[in-house]
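1st attempt posting a full record on here, be nice pls
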Amino acid sequence: MTEYTHGTERDQHSPSGDGSTKPDKSRLERARATATMLGRRGVAGALERTRIALARPTASDIATLVLTLLVCLVVGGSLIGARLAAVATAGGVVAALTAVLLASPNPAVRAVGGALAVPTSVMVAAPIVVAWAFAFGIAGFGPFAAVTVWALIFAALAGTLVSWDKLGDAGARKAATGATLAALGVIGVVVIRVLPEAGVREQARAAVVDIGALALEFVVEPSQSMAALSFFGLTIAVALALGFTSRYLPFERLVPPDRRDALSNAVAGVGRGCSLVIRGSIVLGLGAVFVPVVLESFEEIPLTPFELEAEVPAPLGSLLAGLLTSGTLRYLLLALLGVLVLAAFGEWVRRALRRGLAGVLARVCAPMAGGVVLALGLAYAVADPAIEATLESLIVQLEPQSLAELLLEFPTFGLVAALIIVALGMLASLLGTVSTLRTIRVLPPRAIGAALAAIGVFGLAISLAIIGRPETAIWTAGSAFVIWDIGEYADGIRAELGREAATMRAELVHAAGSVVTGALIALGTVGLYRWVATDVPLIDRRLAAAALATGLVTLALVALVLRK
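the predicted structure (as tokens):
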């Protein structure tokens, strides 16, 4: 009896007994409860960080946001339809909120930002793809519609971030980096998942070789039609890298203290020179596209070196054509770009080791982890035969063919994950464009959000003017000036008095004055346009020049009044 009793007790406490499942279940429940608690804390912390980052917006901030979104929905809806305008505007707003999380120094908040970057990138990618379809004439209304979509996204993004102080303090660049890290995390997991398959490995070798050959051909030995665009694109990349590296590397440690001021001035001069090169390359690249549209002597779009040499008087034409097609110069630019990237990466590693490698790795890996978790979950959730058939019908049209064959070897979840990677790349490029515009000094050092929102709304005015709606374009351009003026006033209030100052009355008076002034000027401009367009045709060149000069002076006075 005694032995039986002891044996029963041993069975009850043994790992194989029935009672052993209760501790296992309790441990599992505790783990689930802990994970749920951490998830809730992470989301709550992320929301709190977003609230703090955008905390205490002034009345002018709110007015700028409301006016920007109102113009986007009304004017954008009249141009491309209410549904597409709403999608583009919503994409900009959501991208702004996600950018705040991705730019946070807190790893937990960056992880939540990386997770939210996945659905955000899908929302942003949808109107961007439509914009490219409009730009290339694949669908829709034409290039002006592409300008409209881009203007809506940037205006909504900037209007939402008008009270974010870090937007001009590398906030957009850090957010773009976070989105890129999320995409890299998804790429790594997809590679680990599909690379063991024999078919994928076989196709991957051919695809890598073909893609590398195409990239090298585009950069070093492009076709006549792509020579100008590839050259200016490579020039922009090198100028960006040179400007960033010159500021990032600690050159001041290499010179005595009495020469550091001169070195700082030299570095600033390099930055200004790089900014001029970038802006000049952008203008020349756009000229290569639009000059053949305007001048009948050029037939190819974009402009080719052959036509440039034939149409431009010698020796200038031959010199420009040789510059655009010089393989030696392109190799030198590529080598310089590689050296600059390696130097910046080495300096980043040095700083990471000094700050603490564990903390740096946590901030780097956090958006990767967040993006991987949500991207893979979404990829597995939406993977079904219907989506696979749709994706395969699109993949077979890709070039080179080896890339299409590689993607066809992927499982369905891999194809969906590949689309998410592309969408994350679009989100990173959107945020990177904001940072680039500030780097090349297109955006001012203050009131960046307001300036970018005004530029986006002014883009809507350009679209209206292109399609022959000048009066609506005038009202939209007037609203762009008002948005900029109110936003700049809000930035000044925050910088001089702080967010806690009681400035509601002054801000409301200023905002009302800006709206009334802008409305009166737009109304007068519309009246002047109707009078000139219907009653007084300007045939004499002197009258036309006087009218143009008057318009420019009036525009300058309007900008000065609104600035005050």
